[in-house]
Amino acid sequence: MIDIRAAGPMEQFEILPIIALDFAGVDISFTNSSLWMVIATSAIVLFFFLATRRAALIPGRVQSAVEVLYEFVSDLVRDTIGADGRKFFPYVFTLFIFILAANLFGLVPSIPGTPAEIHTFTPTSHLIVTLALAMVTISIVLIYGFWKNGLKFFKLFAPSGLPIYMYALIVPIEIISFLSRPISLAVRLFANMFAGHIILKLFAGFVVSLLSAGGAVMLFGIAPFLGAVAVTALEFLVAALQAYVFAVLTCIYLSDAAHAADH
Amino acid sequence: MSIFTLITSAAETAAAHGDEAASAGLPQLDPSSWPSQLFWLTFTFGILYALMHTKFLPAIGGAIEERRDRIADDLDKASEFKREADDAENAYNQALADAKAKAQGIAAETRAEVDKDIAEMQAGTDAALEQQVAAAEARITGMKADAAAKVREAAAETARAIVETLIDEAPTSDAAAKAVSTVSNAS
Amino acid sequence: MEAEAAKLIGAGLASIPLAGAGVGLGLIFGNFLSGAFRNPSAAAANQPTMLLAFALTEFTGLLGFAIAMIILYTF
Fold first, then answer.
1. Which of A115, A257, B44, B165 could form a disulfide with A41 if both were Cys (CB 3.0 to 4.6 A apart)?
2. Which stretches of chain B sit within 8 Å of chain C by CB?
3. Calpha distance B113→B106 (Å, rounded)
4. Terminal Cα distance for chain A, rounded
5. pLDDT tens-place string over residues A172-231
6. Distance in Å, alpha carbon of C25 to nearest chain A alpha carbon
7. Which domains can be identified in chain C, with CATH numbers?
8. What is the interface pTM, i.e. ipTM, of the complex?
9. Are C74 and B29 in contact (CB < 8 Å)?
C-alpha cells in the first residue's frame, strides 16, 4: 500500500533530522539536506574517480565529459580573470560542479512510499547554504583584493577618469553595489531553486486536486501534468544556468579583486 | 479501497500538511537548522574542494596537457618530415638543374668546336676556291691576251696580204703590225 | 481575518515585479536575436553575456516571488 499524497508546496523544503548529532551544544544533525549534499558530492567524486582512473591519451566517454567540464570552467576563468585566475580555478570549478550537482539531484523525483526524510531535497534551495557559498566567494575577493592591492583595493569604489564632483555620486553607488553582491549572489540561486520547486509542486498539486475531484474533471488533470513536465524541463535548464551564473559572477568579482588597482 | 478514496484521502492529507507548513513558516528562515546545514556544507564542500584541488583537476589537466603536447609534438614531427621532404626535393631539383646546365655546357662546347671546325674548313675551302678562281681568271686573262695578240697578228697578216694584193708590195710584218695596232687603237 | 486578507493582497502586490522581469527578459532575448540575425558570426561569442543578463534580470522577478512567498508563509 503506497501512501499517495500531494505534499504542500513548502513541505519539500523542511529540514528533517535523520541522525541526531550534537557538537558542543550546537545541533549538527545529519539531516535530509546533509544527505543530499553527501549524495551530490559522492556522485561527483565517483564520476571524477571513474574519469581519472585511467587518464588515457584518447579519452573515453566519461573522461571526455569531465574534460569538457574542465575546459569549460578553465576557459571561463581564463577569459574573465586572466593570468591571475589560475589559482582560483579549483575553487571556481568546485563551486560550479557542487552547485550543478546539488541543483540537478534536487530534480530527481522522490520514490513514493519512502519516508519523507529521504525524499529528494535541494540543498541549494536553502538561503543559508547559498549565502554561505556567496560569503566564501566574497571573503576570497576581500582577502585576495587586500593582499594583492593593499589599500589600492579601495580604488574599486572610485573608478578613475571621472570629473571630481561625480565621485560624490559614484562612490556610494559602488559601495552599495559591492555590499549587495553577496546577498544578490545568494538570493539569486536560492530564489531560482525555491521558485522552481514551488511551481513544480503547485502543478503536481493541481494534478492531485483534479484527480480527487473524480468523474470527467479528472481528464483535466492532464493539463497541469504536462505543465509539470514542461516546468521540469525548464528547471533542468535553470539548474545548469544558475550554476554557470554563480561561477561567472564569482569570476567577475575575483577579477575585480585582481585588477582593483588598475581601475 | 478504491483509487478514488485513496486520492481523496491523499488530498486531505495534503491539505492538512499544507496547513501545517503554512503555520510552521518558511523552513528557510528557521535558524535552528542553520548550524547543521552550514556544518555539512563545509564538510562536503571542503572534501570536494580538497579532492578536486589535489587529485582530480591535476589529473584531468595533466591528461589534457599531455595530449596537447603530444599533438604539438606530432605536428612538429610532421613539419620536420615535411621540411626534410622539401629539402630532398630541393636537392633533387638542384641536381637536375646542375645536370641540365652541364649538359647544356657540353652541348654548347661541342657546338662551338663543331662551328670552329666548320669555319676552319670553310675558310680552307674558300681560300682554295679563291686560289682556283684567281688561277682561272689569270688563265682567262692570259688566253684573252693571247687571243688578242693572235687576232692582231692575224689582222696584220691579213692587212699585209691585202696590201700585197693591192699594191704588189709586201710591207714588212712590223709595219703591218704597227698599222693594225694604230687602227685598232684609234677605233 | 483582516490580517489574512492583507497578507494575500501583499503577496499579490509583491508579484508585480514579475511583469517587469518579463519585459526585461523579452528585451534581452529580443535584442540578442535581432543582433544575432544581423551578425550571426558574433552571436556565439555574446551568448554567455546574454545568459548572464538573463540571470540578472530574472533575479528581479524571483526576488518579488520570494518576497510573496515569505509574506504568505512567514507572517
1. B44
2. 21-22, 25-26, 29
3. 10
4. 66
5. 888 998 898 898 889 889 988 888 888 888 888 888 888 877 777 778 888 888 999 999
6. 14
7. 2-74 (1.20.20.10)
8. 0.87
9. yes
Given the C-alpha cell 699585209, which residue does it identify?
B160
In 3-state terms, chain C is what percent helix, strand and coil (to 5)? Answer: 95, 0, 5
The three grid cell numbers given for residue A143, joined into one nine-digit string: 582577502
Burial of residue A180, with CB atoms counted within 10 A of its CB: 0-12 exposed, 13-18 middle, 19 or more buried: exposed
Instruction: Find where cell 691576251 sits.
Output: B145
**DSSP-based three-state secondary structure for A9:** coil
- What residue of C is the nearest CA neighbor of A192? C62
Grid cell for residue C17: 515585479
Q: Are B16 and A53 in contact (CB under 8 A)?
A: no
Whether C63 and A192 lie within 8 Å, measured CB to CB: no
Residue A132: how many CB atoms within 10 A of its CB?
A: 19
Instruction: Report, as ranges of residue numbers, the positions in chain B whose pLDDT lies below 50.
Output: 1-23
Given an 8 Å threshold on Cβ–Cβ distance, is A192 in contact with C58? Answer: yes
**What does the DSSP 8-state code read for residue B56?**
I
Cβ-count burial B108-140 (b if 16+ within 10 Å, e if not) = eeeeeeeeeeeeeeeeeeeeeeeeeeeeeeeee
